[in-house]
Design a protein that fits this description.
By secondary structure, the chain is of the alpha+beta class. The chain has a domain at 55-142: Sufe protein. Chain: A. The protein has four helices and three strands, in the order H-E-E-E-H-H-H. Strands 1-2-3 form a three-stranded antiparallel sheet, with helices on one face. The relative contact order is 0.13.
């Protein structure tokens, strides 16, 4: 049984160079992973998404040269009020279903936080349709755009 022992002599200079190149390789791979990984969407820290830019938004309805504004007030997460402004005596006389229709729609909009699944009577379907369209236009202005 003859066993030949091999002795490998490494110079310290070669070990240091190898360690430096391995370290640079790991650093380069880490740098590429950090630079080219997919970006995550920024999410507000509060946990709740921001839906609206807070404020008061309006949409105009013109009825026989009379302007009626539908105003909505929103905070960052929800609709807080829906009103008709200004509702003059002339408008109330000429369009008697306007205020009762808004009084019917407003609590439903606040409850649903949208204009979907809103019910209204058949007598005020056209008035309610016009009001809902105006509310939708005002909500479009209030939506947060990035």
């Amino acid at each position: 049984m003859s066993s030949k022992t091999k002795i490998v002599v490494l110079r310290m200079k070669e070990i240091i160079y190898t360690a430096i190149f391995v370290g640079l390789g790991i650093l380069l791979i880490t740098l590429f992973l950090v630079m080219f990984r997919p970006k995550k969407d920024t999410i507000p820290t509060s946990g709740d998404p921001v839906l609206y830019v807070p404020g008061v938004y309006s949409s105009a309805i013109t009825l026989n040269s009379q302007d009626i504004n539908v105003e909505i007030t929103v905070d960052s997460k929800k609709i807080t009020s829906v009103t008709l402004v200004p509702l003059t005596e002339a408008v109330t006389t000429m369009y008697p279903l306007m205020q009762p229709a808004m009084d019917n729609l407003s609590p439903q909009i606040l409850k649903n936080q949208s204009i979907k699944n809103i019910s209204y009577s058949s007598e005020s379907r056209y008035t309610s349709g016009v009001l809902l369209k105006a509310v939708d236009q005002a909500l479009t202005k209030a939506h947060k755009t990035d």
